[in-house]
Amino acid sequence: MVGEQVILRVEGEVATPRRLTREDLKTIEDRFQIADVSQIDPQRQGRAVMLEGVLDLVQPQPAARYLTLHASADDFHASIPLDQVRQLGLFIYERNGQPLDVSAGGPLRFYIRDFAACHSGEIDECANVKFVDRIELSSEKGLDTRPVDDQDHEALHQQQ
Ligand SMILES: Nc1nc2c(c(=O)[nH]1)N[C@H]1C(S)=C(S)[C@@H](COP(=O)(O)O)O[C@H]1N2
Ligand SMILES: [Mo]
Q1: Do the domain assignments include residue 41?
Q2: Which residue has a Cα nearest atom 14 of ligand 1?
Q3: 126 C-alpha to center of ligand 2: Å?
């Protein structure tokens, strides 16, 4: 079966934690789907679903104030205030009907509309986590391994 593999686990302060496949993301209501992210950012391609659509499946608890995005592939993590990203976050999950390629941050890539420049605030380009495989809602800020200064940031980009 197409897209049977779990690509995202959603945990923490939610009524119903879920393990989602690409198929699950595809079947989220149309109002949360973005057929073509290049309409938002010409540099990006693929099909996306809004963070709000994923949250709708799990029902965040009132205590949820932070969203932590985990990429176990390269041990990269970002933790951002939920209210600031709620309307702006997307997950890019497919391109041309195929799983998103690792070269584009796949199988699942978080993307924030109108992100700010790197380390300019809590919601920045560095929080566009590639290979995201788990998200966690929590009352306190969670694990965050984003580079904190220009030197660290430069070093990280050299590796990519
Ligand atoms: N998993 C993972 N996601 C990541 C990073 C990383 O090192 N690992 N780097 C971040 C940083 S610092 C930036 S600026 C953007 C760069 O995204 P791009 O390569 O698509 O331009 O990805 C972010 N997401
Ligand atoms: Mo960055």
Answers
A1: yes
A2: 126
A3: 4
* Residue 50 in this model has a pLDDT that exceeds 80: yes
Domain assignment of residue 143, given as a range: 6-159
Residue 45 lies in a domain: yes
Residue 1, in any domain of the structure: no
pLDDT in tens, 131-146: 999 999 999 999 999 9
Q: Which residues contact 95 (CB under 8 A, 6 or more apart)?
A: 45, 46, 47, 101, 104, 106
Cis peptide before 107 (omega within 30 of 0): yes
φ/ψ bin of 3: left (φ > 0), alpha (ψ from -120 to 50), beta (otherwise):
left
Total count of domains within the chain: 1
Q: The domain spanning residue 142 has which CATH number?
A: 3.90.420.10
Which ligand number lies closest to the CA of residue 107?
1
Specify the pTM.
0.95
Is 141 among the domain residues? yes
Ligand 1 lined by 109 (C-beta under 6 Å) = no
pLDDT score of 35 more than 80: yes
**Mean per-residue pLDDT of the chain:** 94
pLDDT at residue 122, as a whole number? 81
Q: How far is the CA of 61 from the centre of ligand 1 (A)?
A: 29
Is 130 touching ligand 1 by the criterion CB < 6 Å? yes
